[in-house]
Amino acid sequence: MFYFLDLLVFFRTFTYFYMRETYFGLIKIKNIKVMKKIPNFIHSTPIVILSTVDENGYPCSRAMLNLMDFSQHPQMKSVCEVYGGEKTVFLTTNTSSRKIHQIKTNEKASLYFYDAETFNGVLLRGKISIVNDVDAKKAAWVEQWNEYYPDGVLSDDYALLRFEAEKVEIYGDYTVTECTL
Question: CATH fold of 46-180, please?
Answer without folding.
Answer: Pnp Oxidase; Chain A (2.30.110)
